[in-house]
Amino acid sequence: MKLPKKITPDNLLDTIVELRMQIQQPLELIAGMLAPIFSKIGYQFVSLPSVNLQFSKGNQVAIEIEQRSNNVPVLFVKEAIRVLVAPDRVSINCERGKYVGWTKYSEEIIAIIDAIIKSEIVQSFNRVSIRYVSEYRGESILNKIKYNVVSDNELGLAPREVKLCSLVNNMKIFVTLSDNIARQTHEGETYNASLFDVNIYESCKETLELDTIINLLNKVHDAEKHNFFGLLKDEFINARNPEY
Amino acid sequence: MFLPVAQYVDNINMMPFEDEMAYVWYYQVKEKKTEDIVSTFFLNGSSNLHSPKSTEEIIRESGYLDRYISGMSKFQSLIPCVEPMLEGVTIAHLSKEFTIVMSLVASKDVVCHVEFDQQDECIFIYSSINGKKIFFNFFFESGNIDAQINVSSDEKYLSFDGTVSECLEKLYNEIGKGTDISRTLVA
Prior knowledge:
Chain A is of the alpha+beta class and 244 residues long. Chain A has helices at residues 27-40, 102-119, 210-231, 234-238, and strands at residues 12-23, 44-46, 51-55, 63-67, 74-78, 81-86, 89-94, 122-137, 159-168, 171-184, 190-207. Helix content of chain B is 35%, strand content 28%. The two termini of chain B are 41 Å apart. Classes of the chains: A alpha+beta (244), B alpha+beta (187).
């Protein structure tokens, strides 16, 4: 199947790339070790709350503000791209509605991984995951896919969420289709939308070789595209100005 | 060969997988509110299995982070203006107080606006929770960070002074009970 390089609009909400890793430094040192290296490639440190803020409705406690443990992730931001570094993973995402396209995105991801390797905080990487979530307002997604989903009308139930999964060699694929569910804008306005969530990951032998990680990243991304476009009907794709 | 997810979970260690998409559909089994769909997730049946976060969880978390980064970016852009006026207050201290409020604002806000008022020597955040307009002010002229939270709605106007923690507690006592601001905020 010929896969588009780009569609417009892309309808992407989240474009998460996550690498599991083992770090060899305490997390509290990570921000300080990464900041100088990340700043060279344009990423600025943004402090995350180091406190838990909890409101309770019961009569006992009205509010609790307490110092967190040392597991606060470290956040770096460069324009629309943000990087979260936690003890066991680095997670990269684009700001909502500002997906930069795979060519630029993958360049940034590789630069980030390279910077992490050079910082010597990481012992090894062992898994690459990519999760893209698209939203279609006012549209049903179940009648846009190539398969028929049939419900038993005698029960009066309608399919609202379809989960697909597959294991291809060592690659695990999870697709979730949420059909015509009620959602809410940031401003509180409610609307109906469908969600198309493709979540794929593959584990590998522990490695620090950049080329190995890049190959796996591209492999998982190809699978991401294959599972997204492969499920959709051609007329739905063609209506979104595909570029090949 | 299509594999229902339930089988996939139960036999994950012994079942050979085909290179084909296995799929099954789930029914809505309980509906508390129109937007709160509770489905059966067989994939979460065992803690030993890959248990991905739901689509909604992923979207909610990234939306929170978006708003938080937006507020913090505005705040950080104000630091060069504020720095010459700080007297005994470290940026780290101000930042800590600020992140507490940003956590609250990012989780529930309708509108978030951050600005620096040179005349009043304060940082000002505007937000809205449950239809009530909330104005956070951080004053730093006295060597300590004093906070003031003003709340206005159609019915009344409230003003709280003190530390950030004290102000938030007063805020909760006045408007939190019976409203939906109950949650734990973590990054």
